[in-house]
Write a structure and sequence with these properties.
The chain is an alpha+beta fold and 34 residues long. The chain has one helix at residues 11-26, and strands spanning 2-5, 30-33. It has one domain (2-33).
């Protein structure tokens, strides 16, 4: 399953989106941050 995460550009928002991406990727999902 491909998942796209939308986020703001602040350091905190990018860190949070990256954490979620890593968790989903560990479960085998294809994840993209925009």
């Amino acid at each position: 399953m491909r998942i796209i995460i939308g986020t703001r550009g602040s350091k905190l928002a990018l860190w949070q989106a990256g954490w979620v991406r890593d968790q989903l990727a560990a479960c085998g999902h294809e994840v993209e941050i925009k």
